[in-house]
Amino acid sequence: MEKKSKRIVSLVTMMLLFFIVMAANFRGCFSAASQTPIKGKPTTPANDRVGSSVFFRVTGNVYPTGHYSVILNIGNPPKAFDLDIDTGSDLTWVQCDAPCKGCTKPLDKLYKPKNNRVPCASSLCQAISTGQNYNCDIPTEQCDYEVQYADLGSSLGVLLSDYFPLRLNNGSLLQPRIAFGCGYDQKYLGPHSPPDTAGILGLGRGKASILSQLRNLGITQNVVGHCFSRVTGGFLFFGDHHFPPSGITWTPMRRSSSDTLYSSGPAELLFGGKPTGIKGLQLIFDSGSSYTYFSAQVYQSILNLVRKDLSGKPLRDAPEEKALAVCWKTAKPIKSILDIKSFFKPLTINFIKAKNVQLQLAPEDYLIITKDGNVCLGILNGGEQGLGNLNVIGAWIVNIMKVFSSLMRPTLVS
């Protein structure tokens, strides 16, 4: 659904530990784990596979594409679907080959149901109905879903289940049966065009997430990681075999009774290494949001600091640039961040409850060079997107991070 401001759905609670470490070639990896022990002894081959990982190639970029996507196979025989990666929502869905509104994909890119509906009595049906009126008078009725996104997008459809062929890193090929949405009414009212993908890969922390389902089937641990290149592509993995052996810094995740978003805090903001007075920030990490959004007051403070620091430097406002809200230009088109990097100071997010844990954002981590040769601020006003006091760290900044979290094994930290 877009260059998204934020995809927020209501989910379940878990306590996570979170770490950040800079990546080398791929300037960003995100990984999160909501791990819970398997009860009882492993008695099936599936249980023995817990700890395996699955890798996927990632395509896309923050600008000008506006999203990152992977291809997943669904069905038997399998059919490939390109899905927009979103750590900010739970439900994975694809556009449905059914009487359809807002479905723009060619017929060969749509999913055709095969009498594989999930009944409304299913616990997964109830999980995706959190915050809505859950009615299931007839247990065998189909499970309808509706996901509302804060970027003014939505998907309406039916919950189905089908085989998801997966090649594990140990070489085995599995075909777990996973529940997902078949969307027949997609809407998007936001200011940007939605991504040209067949649907959404929901990687949140809730019960309906593909991660949670793989964990419950005993296939992988509930761990997701992605590494995004600055230019294009990267990779995504499910599973827990790829924690780096060193260089890990941890910060606790927030615990909430109604939220499985990847959220940490409180944090304070520094500009040029100096305190800004902005403290107590609660942050949501969301690969589904192309840009980073701060609450209106925080955003305005950041903008004021940047504008003040640019005073007397050879940059002028570029109101004609439509790519983003705030842009600047020089006498000649800007070809690289290196051309204007010295005009901007770094931003730093300092996690208060974790000792010596900071996320350093160099100018190239929060600025974007457009195709017209202007430089734009990749941080936007969340208040204008209806996000209220939420502060969303989007793909452009998650892009320069390597982030893991784990409930079971904080001892992984050296």
TrEMBL record:
<dbReference type="GO" id="GO:0006508">
    <property type="term" value="P:proteolysis"/>
</dbReference>
<dbReference type="InterPro" id="IPR033121">
    <property type="entry name" value="PEPTIDASE_A1"/>
</dbReference>
<dbReference type="GO" id="GO:0004190">
    <property type="term" value="F:aspartic-type endopeptidase activity"/>
</dbReference>
<keyword id="KW-0378">Hydrolase</keyword>
<dbReference type="InterPro" id="IPR001969">
    <property type="entry name" value="Aspartic_peptidase_AS"/>
</dbReference>
<dbReference type="Pfam" id="PF14543">
    <property type="entry name" value="TAXi_N"/>
</dbReference>
<comment type="similarity">
    <text>Belongs to the peptidase A1 family.</text>
</comment>
<dbReference type="InterPro" id="IPR021109">
    <property type="entry name" value="Peptidase_aspartic_dom_sf"/>
</dbReference>
<feature type="domain" description="Peptidase A1">
    <location>
        <begin position="68"/>
        <end position="414"/>
    </location>
</feature>
<dbReference type="Pfam" id="PF14541">
    <property type="entry name" value="TAXi_C"/>
</dbReference>
<feature type="active site">
    <location>
        <position position="286"/>
    </location>
</feature>
<keyword id="KW-0064">Aspartyl protease</keyword>
<dbReference type="InterPro" id="IPR032861">
    <property type="entry name" value="TAXi_N"/>
</dbReference>
<dbReference type="InterPro" id="IPR032799">
    <property type="entry name" value="TAXi_C"/>
</dbReference>
<feature type="active site">
    <location>
        <position position="86"/>
    </location>
</feature>
<protein>
    <submittedName>
        <fullName>Aspartic proteinase Asp1-like isoform X3</fullName>
    </submittedName>
</protein>
<dbReference type="InterPro" id="IPR001461">
    <property type="entry name" value="Aspartic_peptidase_A1"/>
</dbReference>
<keyword id="KW-0645">Protease</keyword>
